[in-house]
């Protein structure tokens, strides 16, 4: 599926709500190895000590921001979204990605630059880095040709297609029928001259409906649509489908990113139609540990408007 940009929406002219223009491009993604490559956030010991006047000013700013957040009432908007489609988060997500969200994210995940603003280009870059780093994780573990892989929440096929090109036997699914149709179209177009590989099998399914057994299960940029309680259940379900490896990406919950998300909610644009849930890395690890899995590799992808933790987990007994 899609990873929602949760910071700042674009203006009508395509410029983000920032005080200065930012170049959306950053260096190319690096391959991940079995060692941890995580960009660490500063600990409290690394932060400067504020004197009394500065601390008071900071506290006043935080109080003003909290008041503004309260007045914006994002929860009321979210309840209205659910009422409009006659359901909860899942129904909101399905409706969004079958309608206005499909056109938006098809454009973001595509290659054209016309009509794509700087924020969308930056999110495209971040998602592309996540895909590339996830592929690197899998390839570093050995050849994936002939392995069965479940791409849960496949979106427009940005991960399924290169997996199939590597020779993996891919089953890809998404909650959005529009996304699945687009993924199938792109797969046929991209892999048409590859009679040596098997085309991905695409299905319209939500995460709860997935079944079967696969060598590898991958779920990129989907957990952002699930609150922590449901995300824990989804992680357990995805782990039950995997024989040897599970790769997940999620938006990390830290004080800094949570604040940015809340500030972004002050400026709800028409394209921001789904909730965005952040998850603490330790919560994800604990969810995996409860079902007998452990994190073996980690990564952190960050651009200006996109941020994601990437983990590869294996069964505890697997070396």
Question: How is this structure best described in words?
Answer:
The chain has 319 residues and is of the alpha/beta class. The protein has ten helices and seven strands. The chain has a seven-stranded mixed sheet, sandwiched between helices. The longest helix has 23 residues, at 118-140. The radius of gyration is 20 Å and the shape is globular. The chain starts with 51 loop residues before the first helix and ends with a strand. The model is unreliable at 1-60 and 65-74 (pLDDT under 50). InterPro entries: Mg_prot_MeTrfase, Mg_prot_MeTrfase_C, SAM-dependent_MTases_sf. Residues 219-314 form the Magnesium-protoporphyrin IX methyltransferase C-terminal domain. This is Magnesium-protoporphyrin IX methyltransferase C-terminal domain-containing protein.
The quaternary organization reads as single chain
**Gross morphology:** globular
Order of helices and strands: HHHHHEHEHEEHEHHEE
Helix content: 40-55%
The number of strands is 7
N-C termini distance: 31 Å
- Average pLDDT over all residues: 77
* Class from secondary-structure proportions: alpha/beta
Record the SSE blueprint.
Elements lengths: L51 H21 L1 H12 L3 H10 L1 H10 L8 H23 L7 E5 L7 H6 L3 E6 L2 H15 L9 E4 L9 E6 L8 H14 E9 L4 H10 L16 H10 L2 E10 L4 E9 L4
Helix pairs in contact: 2-3, 3-4, 8-10
GO biological process, one term: methylation
GO molecular function, one term: magnesium protoporphyrin IX methyltransferase activity
Protein name: Magnesium-protoporphyrin IX methyltransferase C-terminal domain-containing protein
